[in-house]
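Weekend entry, working from home. Most of the wet-lab plans are on hold until the incubator is repaired, so I used the time to fold the two sequences that have been sitting in the queue since the last round of cloning. Logging both here for the record. First:
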Amino acid sequence: MSAEQQPEYRRSDEWFDSEGVRCAVAVYRPTGTSVDAPAVVMAHGFGTPRAVRLYAYAEVFARAGYAVLVFDYRHFGDSDGQPRQLLDIGKQLVDWTNAVAYARTLDGIDSTRIVGWGTSFAGGHVLTRAGAGENFAAVIAQVPHVDGFAAVRATGLRRTVRVAPSAVVDQVRALLGRSPRYVESVGSPGDVAVMSTPDAAPGRDLLLAESGLKAGDYPETVAARVLLRIGLYSPGKTASNITCPVLMQIMSEDAVTPAAVAEKVARKISDVTVHIHKGGHFDPYVQPLFPIIVEEQLEFLKKTVPVR
């Protein structure tokens, strides 16, 4: 690799504590500067580890002079936590709080300029944290989950009926202290899976391929009990409390987080930039849309939280 091709950042693999559980975090630090950098804290969506395409975004931001922290929630990816693949919404929100707190402690990072970046389910998480008073300098919410009832309705009655028995069984097993009953996160139409729209499995496969991963590198299941709670989780309810600038990127044909509902929530935010693109829920992460999506995010960062 020539000197011109060398990345203008260095990466270290670190850990932060979240209620006694070690969470893995990759920290990207821009090089060649003596000024504290603003930081972007990032996490993935429903049951998905950070290794699935998030590093591609992080590298773009780091080359532009931003520090970046990309973490896995407890129970997922490279983080600790038993049982595995347990998606607890409350715990994930605490993980967000602790990830941001960790970012504020790091040398070379401007603790007053932390950006929350979330996609899909995590897009809802960053909106929730901002609405609850987390002192973000800005928020980027890509195809965000904003309304639990709308998400369940978009799933459709047939798909809901297919996964409901697993959710009930897993909840009973949890109450009895037994191991989880798992359900596939992504499947094809007709499968017993959380997301089984026609674009879900092809979208998952493309994300893995462009991440240099293959099926089986990380588990693609989730403890089914969370399905009893998704309908109750609506980050849009506190959107009007958000005071920092927000970028919301919406896909017009999104079958997971419906566009019309996301637009309605966006109108509640006092300082919001909305971009709507043609495509489905899995399109922003990969070609040909990824360069457009990440450039919008970078321009938003330069405008609202510029590198000094």
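Second, folded right after the first finished:
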Amino acid sequence: MAVETGRSVAKAADARSIRGRGHRPAKNPGRLRRALATHWYAWAMVAPVVIVIGVIVGYPLVRGLYLSTTNADEANVERHIGVNDIPATYKAVGLDNYASILSDGVFWDRLTWTVVWTVSCVALSFVLGLALATMLNRKLAGRSFYRMALILPWAVPAFVSVFTWRLLFNEKKGILNKILEGGGIDAVPWLNDPTWAKLSVITVNVWLGVPFMLVAMLGGLQSIPGELYEAAEMDGAGAWQRFRHITLPGLRSVASTVILISGIWTFNMFPVIFLLTRGGPGDATEILVTYAYRLSFVVSPRDFAGSAAWGVLILALLSIIAVAYRRALRKQGEVW
């Protein structure tokens, strides 16, 4: 009996070895293949959006990158005049456009003011939005009305708000100067003096940005458990201590996200600058994006290659800032 059992085991081992020599084990599918096989429905739903974004964003981005390495302008691009087709004659120049921009003081002046403008607007919007959200998070009469009234500037189209502010800032007939004249104060050249113009555009952009900060901060405040405040109050913590040790840490994840989004929006906030001052007086309020627009649509001959290079540099700056900001958050323990 023992002999037969030993022979059967030996035959089974020989059979396994023969199968092993004839058939290799199947390889595990790759991560991408497993993801597609597991989440194919989600990929199918996302695919149309990805394709549309790729066409709308991807093509202009690639086209801009290409034009930034040429000397394309209004005089040498392809044109159609009547039945005549004039072919393009521009040529590649490599990185000459970037070298010219970075060696010119105009870029650094615009960049300095753009950074000041962005930091000022985001900081003021965040502080005001947080203060208003803290007040509206309490129980008070007419709270719903106040919330709706403070969100109203966000609902009004930006160009309507800017034109309204432009009427208010009018030096001769504006309401603000009429009020000042009624108090015996000379009219202020809101949009005709470089310093006042900078303060004016910052004011308008903060007025437009506060509702976004208010909504975000209010949502973050309502997500903080009320038991934490009750426990802190029972332990004798004051209002400032509760705000510092409970409110601010509880809002950290929300605040980090909205600050980054608001910073990107403000960095590229074209409507406020262009519609309110058009970069003036002179070029005092010109930011990077409005100067890129000026090169492509205002100056003659229009410098398409230079404008594209400015656009690529703006994209690179924002990408660097976003990556650095994300890494700083990860070092602080924020998963984002």
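Plan for Monday: verify the second prediction. The CA atoms of residues 150 and 211 lie 6 Å apart.
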